[in-house]
Amino acid sequence: MALPKVLVLVLAGGKGNRLELLTERRAKPSVPFAGVYRLIDFPLSNCEHSAIADVWVSVQYQPQSVNEHLGGGRPWDLDRTNGGLMMLPPFQGSERGGFTEGTADGLWRQSELIRQFAPDALVVVSSDAVYKLDYRDVVDGHLASGAEVTMVTTEVEADDASRYGIVEVGEGRRVTGYAYKPENPATTTATNEVFVFSPVPTLDRLEALNDEAGEDGLEDLGDSLLPAQTEEGLARAHPLDGYWRDVGTVDSYWRTHREFLDAEPPLDLDDPRWPIHTRGGRHSAARVLEDGRIENSLLSGGTRISGNVRGSVLSPGVVVEPGATVLDSVLLPGVRVRAGATVTRAVLDDNVDVGKGASVGGEGDITLVGREARVADGTELAAGARHPEPED
């Protein structure tokens, strides 16, 4: 019996304002994670291990940062003669052309292409979370259920639940209630931005909802589509029992990195049964020089450590000079911390240069320094600072 025809649509077009300076000059899916990876590596690796070869990536904001990383899709076995990876940039030439105004609007704009492809199941995923999931397993359960949508769910902290789509689940995993980012969540069961849709009824419903919305547009999936499917009893839940973290805010991005410093991290990114693949770099081995001291940290290729590094994640090409100290921080590619400088509880973007004797961050809120910024010698950036300061 042939496998169902599955199409995965990765929604990679949003700006990701919650990541602030980290997405000022790159798309959210191309934000580095755990030293050598990018956020989009997680859904693409899930596709590979789920034996799904048809993957479309919808890009919009800073698309070159995504295109440069993905190339032809070879690391995820998507460089194929038939099928494989396809990029979906904004386009003109029909009523569906232009920039998307939310996830549901983006799905509506691509609906003609999806109908032509005629998949048995459409998997729609975001690219701002860290997790492993067999999409094929979710698809099989969805097709057997007769539902119009299957929402993959996870449990979140009560004080964080209002950031998500929150569901109530009844017998047989049927979703009996859905609320998008509610002020007073009824449960702590949240959708984790992985959805499996039955394409034809879902796209037909989108057409009707778009007509009703008029000039206001469809906005996000949680605004009208998912509530309508839930109200008609056509939504089911698929609980993800394993690890899942949304890294769409500066605080969650920093905290999730901390979890991967444990002796037994929550996900083994090198698990031979389910490795996370990425586009390989061209860096030599990391080097810890004579005076360098490392404790409980992740070091990527090309790093050069002559100072003190503790509880931190260092991306390729980071240099920590003699007498410098890096504590509980995430340093992205090419950062240089010069002699005598201190970096504490901070996220430093690509090619940041921290001058001699400078002090960045401290106890308290996470400090964020934007790409290629220069922190002058002897400068003090207080905990929670943003450098350069965002424009109004």
Automatic annotation (TrEMBL):
GO terms for molecular function: glucose-1-phosphate adenylyltransferase activity. The keyword Transferase applies. This is Glucose-1-phosphate adenylyltransferase. InterPro entries: ADP-Glc_PPase, GlmU/GlgC-like_hexapep, NTP_transferase_dom, Nucleotide-diphossugar_trans, Trimer_LpxA-like_sf. Signal peptide: none annotated. GO terms for biological process: glycogen biosynthetic process. Keywords: Glycogen biosynthesis, Nucleotidyltransferase, Transferase. Residues 290-362 form the Glucose-1-phosphate adenylyltransferase/Bifunctional protein GlmU-like C-terminal hexapeptide domain. It comes from the Bacteria. Pfam families: Hexapep_GlmU, NTP_transferase. Belongs to the bacterial/plant glucose-1-phosphate adenylyltransferase family. CDD domains: ADP_Glucose_PP, LbH_G1P_AT_C. Residues 9-260 form the Nucleotidyl transferase domain.
